């Protein structure tokens, strides 16, 4: 008589571990959700065709959500201003994004600081009288009328990178040297003392739109830049809370 075959031994712990390892973690699922939502929003805004790279948009959105989580942004306006100083001044490198309506409100030229570079900004500073632009996240404040006319105060919130903005009077204002005509004559925009200067024919509308507690992000080619507001976990949780 043939000896019956022994039943296979099942290691229930190992089997359970294998199943567990095969399933994605809650954190990875949340990260995937976050990435998908940002890619969807980027697509809906149609900003890739305007030169706004996804990597810059992702950083700007991460900071926006962190600042929103901290209660530093107004609830009345879901606006995000992105300035990409990795692009030359001859290109339109400022976007004002309406995140609620999923539309671009403004896309225009913007000047960088005199000592940050010629056509391309390469050097940045938080120091007084540096005449350079300062990278990072800002929260817009109130308007005032100064030597450049209607202007908007900007509160820099990235320690070590732009927190002297108010003391330096780094503000959003209009300037005659921010125009296509200036580019045609000089091959680049004129430059400010560190302010993100706007075209004269658009500055009133832009200042009116973004004043009073909205987020602005200045991106640039500085490998040393870091920010506590680029915390993806906080951004993910903020986005999840908004969708719950």
UniProtKB/TrEMBL annotation:
<protein>
    <submittedName>
        <fullName>L,D-transpeptidase catalytic domain</fullName>
    </submittedName>
</protein>
<dbReference type="Pfam" id="PF13645">
    <property type="entry name" value="YkuD_2"/>
</dbReference>
<dbReference type="InterPro" id="IPR032676">
    <property type="entry name" value="YkuD_2"/>
</dbReference>
